[in-house]
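ok trying this again, last paste got cut off
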Amino acid sequence: MPTTLFAETAASLSELRNDPIATVAAGDGFPVAILDHDEPAFYCIPVKAYEMLMDKLEDVELAAIVESRKLQAEIDVAWDDL
């Protein structure tokens, strides 16, 4: 059955086991699909890519909060009350 890979680079579990740093480096900063019996088992991503992904997810969550609150009534607050 055909499987879509969400990475331009793929490596086998054996390659990952033999040289994990070189396997990650093969992706040139992008995810590497790790294959088990020619099927994707997981994606191996470098730290910077993971951090960027987490930042983007946080931005999406914050945008959803903003959207949900933008029609709420405003609350007047005095600076002295803060």
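PB: full thing came through this time. The mean pLDDT is 95.
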